[in-house]
Structure to design on (307 residues):
């Protein structure tokens, strides 16, 4: 297996507080790695460490197979990044900002600027200074800047912040295209779990600076359980009927209104009919899937992992 990034017991202490603790993460070449965690969990700090913006207190980082040191300038040129709120020259246009970036990176290919602007769908902006851009436009420009030099590895901290649903979908398709067609590896953090669920190959979940889980989306999907959820004010009676009249034993009463049935030998229709036949008032009955969101919350709330 070839890895684009490996960290080994990466640790960062700020003012005596360990905000990243012994993080050992592994990002495979060509994959999209979704980095999840609650506010303040340490995602941005890890991203800053692997892009050499800050130095680790201890631990090692290996990028493209080489150890990252303070002198790894060439390695950094092979990466495209968005870390925290992207900063631009406000009085310049998007194109001028990208030209400056290319000069800075020693990347002399002006055609790439048009390509990048078109990939992120920033159009008719030649006359506009960046200070007049909306948040979503700035975010698109940040993505354009990150991809312009055709990096092998993209590190994107909350790249879809400020985008509307159409923008989110466009960027999702763009990230998938960059990964599948260009073989670019992507480390991406986002609060929008459904977006990560759609694009990620692997998930890393960080909490209190510790990497709690690193797991493939395939595994999460395999463990996905389908269930039928019933909301009713007659919970006790419904449970009795399920058990004694319909012969369903694999169900869980979550609270005094909610029952989840994991048994698959009866259809939703059959269950509904039987409950109504026994005079049970059903407020709702739905087929549900345990998704990444549920998986994530379970980890964050300590359900699957011991603290
Ligand atoms: N320069 C710094 N000095 C002191 N503490 C810091 C510094 N940078 C980050 N921290 C602290 O480190 C912890 C992790 O912050 P970090 O920004 O990495 O979290 P995050 O997971 O990216 O959060 P969010 O999702 O809110 O962006 C926080 O408690 C933060 O206050």
């Amino acid at each position: 297996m070839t890895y684009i990034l490996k960290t080994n017991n990466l640790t960062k202490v700020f003012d005596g507080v360990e905000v990243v603790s012994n993080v050992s993460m592994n990002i495979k070449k060509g994959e999209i790695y979704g980095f999840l965690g609650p506010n303040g969990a340490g995602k941005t700090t890890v991203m800053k460490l692997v892009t050499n913006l800050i130095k680790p207190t201890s631990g090692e980082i290996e990028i493209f197979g080489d150890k990252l040191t303070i002198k790894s300038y060439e390695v950094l040129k092979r990466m495209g990044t968005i870390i925290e709120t992207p900063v631009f020259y406000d009085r310049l246009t998007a194109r001028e900002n990208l030209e400056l970036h290319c000069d800075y990176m020693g990347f002399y290919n002006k055609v790439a600027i048009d390509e990048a602007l078109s990939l992120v769908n920033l159009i008719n902006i030649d006359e506009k200074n960046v200070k007049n851009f909306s948040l979503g436009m700035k975010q698109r420009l940040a993505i354009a800047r990150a991809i312009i030099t055709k990096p092998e590895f993209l590190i994107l901290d909350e790249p879809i912040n400020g985008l509307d649903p159409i923008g989110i979908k466009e960027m999702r398709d763009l990230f998938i295209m960059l990964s599948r067609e260009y073989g670019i590896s992507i480390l991406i953090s986002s609060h929008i779990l459904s977006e990560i669920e759609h694009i990620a190959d692997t998930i890393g979940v960080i909490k209190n600076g510790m990497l709690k889980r690193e797991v493939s989306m395939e595994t999460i999907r395999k463990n996905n359980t389908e269930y039928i959820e019933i909301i009713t004010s007659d919970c006790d009676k419904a449970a009795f009927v399920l058990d004694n009249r319909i012969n369903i034993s694999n169900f869980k009463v979550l609270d005094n209104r909610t029952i989840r049935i994991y048994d698959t030998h009866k259809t939703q229709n059959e269950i509904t009919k039987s409950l109504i036949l026994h005079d049970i008032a059903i407020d709702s009955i739905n087929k549900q899937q345990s998704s990444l969101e549920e998986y994530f919350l379970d980890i964050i709330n300590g359900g699957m992992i011991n603290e």
